[in-house]
Amino acid sequence: MSIRTTVKSATHAVVKAFSPATGAQEDTDLLDTLKSEHDEVKGLLAALVDADTAARRRALVQQIKAALVPHTKAEQKVLYDAIIALKDKDAQIDGHEGYLEHELADKALQKLGSISNATSPEHKAAAKVLKELVEHHIDEEERNVWGDARKHFSAEERDQMNTAYLAAKSRVKVR
C-alpha cells in the first residue's frame, strides 16, 4: 500500500469517526478554519494584556479558555495525529512540537486562571507570557505544520479533516 493510500485511509477513518450528524463546513479547508480561530485567540490575548479592570480581565480569561481548549484538543486529534502518522520525520517532529507547545500554553492558562487578583502584577505577567507562548506557537504552526499539511494532504483531504476537526471540537468539555 502506498503512503498516499495509507494517509487517505487514515484521514477517511478519522473523518468517519468524527463526522457530525448534521453538515458542518465540509467544503472548508481545515487550515482556513484554524487561521480564523488563531486570529480570534490572538485578539482576545491582546485585549487581555491591555485590559485594566478585574472583571474584564476575568471575562477575557474565560473567553480565551473557551476558545483555546477545544481548539487545541481537536487540532491535536485531527491534524497533529495525522502529521505524526506520516513517514516524514521532519513532519513528525513538527507534530510532536505542537503537542508540547499546547501543553505549555495549557499550563500557563491554568496558572493565569488560578491567580485570584486579576489586576495584580502576577496576573498581568501570566497574561503576557501566555500571549507570547501562543503567538510563538501560532507563527511556527502556520509555517511548519501547515506546510506539512499542504505537502502531504490534498485540499479535499483537508476539507474532510475540517469536518472531523469541527466534530471533535464540539465534543470537548471546557471546565
Keywords:
mainly alpha; 81% helix; 175 residues; single chain
Would you mind describing this structure in some detail?
It contains six helices and no strands. With 175 residues, it is mainly α. It is elongated.
The average pLDDT is: 89
Tell me the β content.
Answer: under 5%
Q: What's the end-to-end separation, in Å?
A: 43 Å
Global shape: elongated
- Count of alpha and pi helical runs: 6
Summarize the structure.
This protein is mainly alpha-helical and 175 residues long. It has helices at residues 3-18, 30-50, 54-84, 89-114, 121-152, 155-170. Helix 2 packs antiparallel against helix 5.
Layout of strands and helices, then pairs:
Blueprint: H1 3-18, H2 30-50, H3 54-84, H4 89-114, H5 121-152, H6 155-170
Helix pairs in contact: 1-6, 2-3, 2-5, 3-4, 3-6, 4-5
